[in-house]
Amino acid sequence: MKLILASNNKNKLREIQEMLSPIGYEVISQSQAGIEIEAEENGSTFEENAAIKADAIYGMTHTAVIADDSGLEVDALGGAPGIYSARYAPKGQGKKTLLANLEGVPDDKRTARFVCVICFISPDGEKHYFRGECEGKIGYECIGENGFGYDPIFMYGDRSFAQLSPEEKNAVSHRSMAIIKLREYLEAADKGGNA
C-alpha cells in the first residue's frame, strides 16, 4: 500500500520509510505526491494538529495518509513549549530561550519529555492515532553535534539526544515509539484484511 506523509521533511520521511517498507508500505512525501500545501496547525493538542495535516492531504487524495505533530513538554514550565515547540522563540533561538526560562530551576525539577502523535487516515477515511513519548531532563547547555531542534539540551540519561548516534536515538525516540505502534496496527490490520 502507498502512504502519503503529510510533510516534506526528509529526516521524518526516511525514518518512517525505514520502519514501514519492510512490511510492504511505500511511503512518499506530499511533494512526491504532487501536493504543495501547508495546513495551518491551529489545534490545541498534538492529536488535533496531526489530524489537521492529515485531513488536508486526505481531502485532496482520498488515499492513505500519515501525519505527525511533535514537541517538547517541560514540567517546570507547565508543559511548555508543547505544541508550540517550533514557534516558541524566533528561529534559531528556541534552545537559548528555553534554557533562560529554566535558569535557577534545580536538576530534579527539569524533567521533560518529547512527544509525537501520528494520525493515520485509512483509504476509507477512518482515523487512528498513535502516541510516543521519551522521558528525559533539560540540561544546562547545548551538548553534541547530532540531531536537530532541542536535541542538544534534552538529556537522555547522561547524554543529550544530540550525542546519540542516529541508531541509538531511533531506538528510543518519541517518533520511533509512535511509528512502532503504527506499524503494529498496520501489520494486525493486514492480517485481518481491514487496513
Write structural notes for this entry:
The chain is α+β, with helices and mostly antiparallel strands. It is built from five helices and eight strands; from the N terminus they run βαβαββαββββαα. Strands 1, 2, 3, 4, 5, 6, 7 and 8 form an eight-stranded mixed sheet that branches. The chain is globular and about 50 Å long. The model has no long low-confidence stretch (mean pLDDT 94).
How are the elements arranged and paired?
Layout: E1 2-5, H1 10-20, E2 26-29, H2 46-61, E3 65-74, E4 81-82, H3 94-101, E5 111-121, E6 127-138, E7 154-156, E8 159-160, H4 166-172, H5 174-192
Parallel strand pairs: 1-2, 1-3
Antiparallel strand pairs: 3-4, 3-5, 5-6, 6-7, 7-8
Helix pairs in contact: 1-5
Overall body shape: globular
Mean pLDDT across residues: 94
Structural class: alpha+beta
Quote the distance from N terminus to C terminus: 9 Å
Radius of gyration: 17 Å
Low-confidence stretches: none
Q: Fraction of residues in helices?
A: 25-40%
Proportion of residues in extended strands: 15-25%
Number of strands: 8
Tally of helical runs: 5
Q: What profile does the largest beta sheet have?
A: 8 strands, mixed
Order of helices and strands: EHEHEEHEEEEHH
Key traits:
single chain, 195 residues, alpha+beta, 8-stranded mixed sheet, 8 strands, 31% helix
At a glance:
It is built from 5 helices and 8 strands, in the order E-H-E-H-E-E-H-E-E-E-E-H-H.
